[in-house]
Amino acid sequence: MPEAPTIEYHYQVMFFDTDCAAVVHNLAYLRIIETARTLLAAQLGFDMPAMAKDGVYPVLLRTEADYRRPAKLCDHLIVRGRLESIERVRFWVGFEVVDAAGTCFVTCRQSLALIKMPEARPLRLPAEWSTRFAHLR
Amino acid sequence: MPEAPTIEYHYQVMFFDTDCAAVVHNLAYLRIIETARTLLAAQLGFDMPAMAKDGVYPVLLRTEADYRRPAKLCDHLIVRGRLESIERVRFWVGFEVVDAAGTCFVTCRQSLALIKMPEARPLRLPAEWSTRFAHLR
Amino acid sequence: MPEAPTIEYHYQVMFFDTDCAAVVHNLAYLRIIETARTLLAAQLGFDMPAMAKDGVYPVLLRTEADYRRPAKLCDHLIVRGRLESIERVRFWVGFEVVDAAGTCFVTCRQSLALIKMPEARPLRLPAEWSTRFAHLR
Amino acid sequence: MPEAPTIEYHYQVMFFDTDCAAVVHNLAYLRIIETARTLLAAQLGFDMPAMAKDGVYPVLLRTEADYRRPAKLCDHLIVRGRLESIERVRFWVGFEVVDAAGTCFVTCRQSLALIKMPEARPLRLPAEWSTRFAHLR
Lengths: 137, 137, 137, 137
What we know:
Four copies of one chain form a homotetramer.
Chain A: E1 6-12, H1 26-43, H2 48-53, E2 56-67, E3 76-86, E4 90-98, E5 104-116, E6 121-123, H3 129-132
Antiparallel strand pairs in A: 1-3, 2-5, 3-4, 4-5, 5-6
């Protein structure tokens, strides 16, 4: 049966995440989401240090983020992420940043590809993905 | 004649903008674009410290960013930004991050609103905008 | 018996922590240490959101950081922190960033004070600290 | 006559530099100082992209920063930096972050070395420095 990889990452808001409007800054959410994305990538089977040795990196192609409500200092955020769909070289992941009460702060979709550096050449996604994530094609 | 506010902001890539793939990190572009956006906001007539005293902040509602080519350490980036359209409470701005040779690294669209904090209440855009930027409605 | 508050915080290195030298960037260590410092502050009894409502913030007065060895992408870092000494308005905290094998990447000492904003007035440390942390005076 | 390399870098405080205490965050000053340091390095003759091709990077060994007064959103900061002293492999740079009225926000001293990566081997400073900066030994 095909997998549907998901991740849940807990994070408490720090001073450096906030700005002088006393809310979490838009860049901070994307940094927090990036941590969740890296944990999701580990679940997808990416061994980052090994890939880096071969000059292969998961590279962000597109970000769409909607900022819905402001989070504050010390808030306990939950980032829920999932693999949403796969193409030949590109895959999409989706995230919500919520709290335990169900308030939704940010939603975000991102597409990525595996890129061979330094020539910046996109690679095909792993062959096994087409069966492993058949329902996401 | 209605204005079409634009901005051009020059930036040289620093170590802290890069990551171990030896390219500019996706979050760094958005920070650089935010500086351009703040300069554009000044042109639109926003006096941030005065607004902050009243608890009014321009708040990001949505970001769409496409990462097209990788920039590198010490690259001289040019961020070109413009006011793209205005609604009743929301306005859209657009940016390209390019270099002098015309290479395009990132394109980005963002919508914002003026928010009264701490109640997080959206305000109408300034009344004068409907004539000043009539062609962008 | 007087307490000796300590903290241990685990952190895995992310792409945004690294730079194009393929090592963790000096600013990233200080951000990671700040998270450990905030967890230590909770142990010291600081209720940040409550203090923020009163306009009181723990503010950094001085940082001394020694960068000893380079950490890399996906390394599992351990930040060990402790309250080192207290004065009338100032207190000192110390941190080491190590890994499970005992490699030491960074050591850091920082002094802080409680500051009443917006007038930026330093407050005396809590009266109970002189008994609670008597051995650290 | 020996040189005394100095730099002056102007910077306006952005939202992402501030935190919920409505002042510039301690990490932001160090990022701003890093930009000044990179401009100073160019004056010292460092060609970063060429050095990076050879795997040579100026690496921070120690930071000492004193946070003296809080800067705020949109403040116009001036970072003044200078080469302070040189040793065999290590050199020291110093910075003040001030404004046009002479208020001093932060002072900072940092030592660096040229490091050959990936083996993390410190290199001797350029031979010409011992005459060029004779008075700083």
